[in-house]
Q: What sequence folds into this?
């Protein structure tokens, strides 16, 4: 089946199987390596992509479902300023260990930050913890990820008490 | 020209280094950027157009004789190219690490539900996924054993007939006279503890990509913690010399021990397929395949009796450790050794009798997992310590400090600790910082209402390097390019711990005096020297000794060269942070020094090999040398227990470590935090559930639940006691496993404190805790 969507700002047209998941289309047909296979049942979050700006697990999406959508992976955010700041904080705060969950974790964090900054609402620590609850990290970088997100928020919206 | 090349002298020189430029600093990891940007490549990212796909067909019976493996239906799909079984192995099928009991692919019998039977290869994942369901085993079922206590006693059902018993391995430790020790005890505590299997859930499941060349020499890119062991196993299975096999461990998406056991096997299975097909093959495990087939943290039954006198001194321990080894010994004997030698906890115990049994059952094998047999035995030992303290009317911290090992003490194996024993100081500091005494009293007095708070302590020790006198070494190769960049080669892999991307670079930069961004570490490949495995917390502690030696040699050559060339004393030469100062006149950059050295014929390539000095262990007597050094940790945990639901929440964790020199404090803290979170998962949430036929029921991440951001407690800044180890790089000891080890005991002790009731079986799930707290609800 022919499917059209935007991948990281570029229009793509692919011929896919009706039962093909977006994860496989991205990895096997389009060579997007940052999207990782972890559990293939929507639990680990390693295959997270942004669909029209919102995080979604690409193992639970059929490619035909995203026809006409905008798909973003970290490859599409290299020149995005907010994403750059976030990556910087991840590195400074040692929020990266094995790195397998990291691109997905970053996408989730990036979408959350965008939303918070757009609404100019300062999320609580609990909100941050909740935002990343769907991204499993077996190395246990959670406290560092929360710190990295907090640092970006503080720079934009002022200090946390 | 005096060039110091002797490893011990070089190690000693940097041991006492005081003012450091990069060592001891939280220098950012060099790999975080490429990982964040999705540029870091893991095994599956090396896939290219036209490569073949493969999956394992797994056994669906716990114990049976194989009459026939029928895969004719699988081959009906034209996209399925081949199905390989044990019959296709050109070399040896025997891959047991400790005992020769394990086939790469089932042969003659299957011994657990989930055992690898065949490798199915096809042109695309879809056809391969269907084909694995069409591999059928014609079997003659055999009675299966699932309980290790029963398996030990049964002689009529044997999982490995040729061994004549279901006990795969025994260990023992003997010290003093336990009967006399117990006769001197004023209080005695005796319990049976049970711990359970834990699944690793590295986010990246196992995979291997085998690429044959024209002469069928093989490159295997695999999720593997020890490339050189993979090389040995692949060469054995294919019947080719090791030099024909190259193994690459690219970035690995978490290992925690699991990819030490399964890594060489996944590599060999992929290589087998590629060898026959002469085409690149990617063997991938689905999450379910991974959980069903790869070895797990050991399940144990531990009988523990300990006694202490009124003056608060331990008098004796008597311990029986039974490990449910599953179908194969795998690394079970090594795990049991470690459990046995650590059975006392880090205390001076005058009389000890410890017996270990590694027992076969028809379940998934036990294997390596952060802590390696130690968390379960420390859970028992540290639960005992709390109960002894209570009976004696002593504070648990005081009682522990009273018995703590110090420099000069001898352990239960009779090994005298001559240095690097900082646990007494660590626990003392921790108790003060965490406000232990006040909180302990406060929570004791507040045992009312729906939520109860508790505070618990546990300490642990963990021998560095392999157990007993088993040989262990470090190795590396360094060469400096003409532009001054430094190339370091190590067999250590990168699976999250960050040694190649942080501590290794820091050590090289510090020793050579070159800017840290000049240092590039090539890791995880058999093209580097055999550095041993990246396991046992040894990536930096043992793994980097060779780096210290190689870098130290080059530094020594540079100093000798400058001393001779400029006719100055060596003491007048300073090379630090990229700046070279000779006497009081000459100043040059690191790059200029390297260019000069090249032009004058100084050899700027060096290997660094160090064989760890060890004593001997007498297996028959159960006494002797156990480890070249011990890392230590103390943890204080605060919990809240909801007595209406039985839910335990870990609120705060305070860690203190005595791990020698800390090369990169933040990198070490991330290891500590990660291990704490994994330990919370193990203690409160995670447990593999087996069906009546031995199948793992919860073989996916919906049913096997691990900690998320919500289960993460407040983790206080770790306290470090830098009790340097004589052979460690700048005195560093191992850290990766440490914080996991005391977590089960610390949480259990805190829950006991909150409820006033002792639980001796893990995990502390809401159901289990509620079975106790419902009596408190009334």
A:
């Amino acid at each position: 089946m022919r499917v059209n969507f935007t991948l990281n700002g570029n229009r793509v047209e692919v011929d896919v199987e009706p039962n093909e998941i977006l994860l496989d289309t991205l990895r096997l047909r389009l060579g997007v390596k940052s999207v990782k296979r972890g559990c293939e049942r929507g639990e680990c979050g390693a295959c997270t992509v942004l669909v029209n700006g919102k995080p979604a697990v690409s193992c639970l999406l059929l490619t035909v479902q995203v026809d006409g959508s905008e798909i973003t992976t970290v490859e599409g955010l290299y020149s995005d300023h907010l994403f750059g700041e976030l990556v910087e904080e991840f590195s400074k705060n040692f929020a990266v260990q094995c790195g397998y969950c990291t691109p997905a974790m970053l996408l989730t964090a990036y979408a959350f930050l965008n939303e918070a900054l757009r609404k100019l609402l300062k999320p609580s620590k609990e909100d941050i913890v909740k935002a990343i609850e769907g991204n499993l990290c077996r190395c246990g970088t959670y406290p560092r990820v929360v710190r990295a997100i907090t640092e970006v928020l503080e720079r934009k919206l002022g200090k946390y008490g | 020209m005096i060039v110091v090349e002797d490893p011990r002298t070089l190690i000693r020189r940097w041991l006492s280094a005081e003012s450091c430029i990069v060592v001891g600093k939280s220098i950012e990891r060099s790999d975080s950027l490429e990982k964040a940007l999705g540029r870091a490549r893991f095994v599956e990212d090396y896939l290219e157009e036209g490569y073949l796909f493969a999956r394992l067909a797994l056994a669906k019976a716990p114990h049976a004789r194989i009459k026939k493996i029928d895969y004719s239906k699988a081959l009906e799909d034209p996209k399925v190219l081949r199905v390989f079984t044990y019959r296709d192995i050109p070399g040896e099928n025997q891959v047991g690490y400790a005992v020769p009991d394990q086939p790469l692919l089932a042969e003659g019998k299957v011994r657990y539900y989930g055992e690898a039977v065949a490798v199915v290869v096809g042109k695309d994942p879809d056809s391969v996924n269907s084909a694995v369901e069409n591999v059928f085993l014609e079997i003659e079922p055999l009675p299966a054993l699932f309980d290790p206590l029963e398996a030990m006693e049964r002689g009529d059902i044997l999982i490995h007939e040729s061994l004549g018993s279901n006990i795969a391995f025994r260990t023992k430790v003997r010290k003093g006279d336990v009967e006399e020790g117990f006769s001197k005890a004023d209080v005695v505590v005796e319990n049976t503890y049970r711990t359970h299997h834990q699944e690793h859930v590295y986010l990246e499941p196992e995979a291997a990509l085998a690429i044959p060349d024209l002469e069928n020499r093989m490159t295997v890119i695999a999720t593997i913690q020890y490339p050189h062991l993979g090389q040995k196993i692949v060469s054995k299975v294919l019947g080719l010399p090791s030099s024909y096999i190259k193994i690459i461990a690219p970035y690995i998406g978490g290992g925690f021990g699991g990819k030490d056991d399964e890594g060489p096997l996944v590599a060999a299975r992929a290589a087998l397929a590629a060898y026959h097909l002469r085409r690149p093959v990617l063997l991938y495990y689905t999450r379910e395949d991974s959980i069903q087939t790869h070895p797990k943290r050991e399940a144990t039954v531990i009988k523990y009796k300990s006694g202490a006198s009124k003056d608060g001194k331990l008098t004796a321990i008597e311990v029986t450790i039974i490990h449910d080894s599953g179908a194969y010994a795998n690394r079970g004997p090594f795990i049991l050794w470690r459990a046995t030698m650590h059975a006392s906890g880090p205390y001076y115990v005058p009389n000890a009798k410890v017996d270990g049994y590694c027992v076969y059952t028809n379940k998934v094998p036990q294997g390596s997992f952060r802590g390696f047999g130690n968390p379960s035995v420390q859970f028992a030992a540290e639960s005992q310590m709390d109960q002894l303290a209570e009976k004696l009317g002593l504070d648990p911290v005081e009682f522990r400090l009273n018995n703590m090992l110090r420099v000069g003490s001898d352990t239960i194996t009779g090994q005298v600790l001559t240095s690097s024993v900082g646990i007494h100081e660590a626990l003392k500091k921790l108790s003060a910082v965490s406000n232990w005494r006040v909180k302990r009293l406060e929570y004791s007095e507040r045992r009312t209402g729906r939520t109860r708070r508790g505070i618990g302590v546990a300490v642990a020790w963990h021998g560095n390097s392999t157990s007993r006198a088993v040989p262990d070494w470090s190795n590396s190769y360094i060469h400096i390019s003409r532009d001054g960049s430094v190339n370091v080669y190590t067999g250590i892999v990168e699976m999250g711990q960050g040694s190649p991307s942080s501590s290794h670079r820091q050590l090289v930069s510090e020793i050579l005096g070159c800017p840290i961004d000049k240092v590039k570490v090539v890791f995880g490949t058999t093209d580097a020297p055999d550095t041993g495995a990246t396991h046992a917390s040894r990536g930096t502690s043992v793994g980097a000794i060779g780096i210290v030696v190689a870098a130290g040699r080059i530094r020594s050559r540079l100093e000798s060269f400058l001393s001779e060339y400029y006719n100055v004393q060596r003491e007048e030469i300073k090379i630090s942070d990229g700046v070279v100062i000779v006497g009081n006149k000459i100043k040059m950059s690191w790059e200029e020094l390297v260019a000069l050295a090249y032009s004058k014929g100084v050899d700027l390539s060096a290997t660094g090999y160090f064989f760890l000095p060890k004593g001997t262990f007498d297996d028959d007597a159960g006494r002797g040398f156990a480890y070249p050094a011990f890392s230590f940790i103390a943890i204080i945990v605060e919990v809240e227990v909801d007595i209406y639901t039985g839910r335990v929440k870990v609120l705060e964790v305070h860690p203190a470590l005595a791990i020698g020199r800390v090369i990169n404090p933040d990198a070490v803290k991330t290891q500590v935090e990660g291990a704490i979170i994994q330990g919370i998962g193990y203690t409160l949430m995670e447990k593999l559930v087996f069906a009546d036929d031995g199948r793992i029921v919860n073989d996916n991440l919906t049913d096997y639940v691990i900690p998320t951001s919500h289960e993460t407690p407040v983790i206080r800044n770790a306290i470090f006691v830098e009790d340097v180890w004589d052979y460690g790089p700048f005195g560093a000891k191992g850290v990766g496993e440490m914080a996991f080890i005391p977590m089960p005991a610390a949480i259990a002790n805190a829950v006991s404190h909150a409820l006033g009731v002792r639980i001796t079986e893990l995990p502390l799930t809401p159901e289990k805790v509620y079975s106790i707290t419902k009596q408190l609800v009334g």
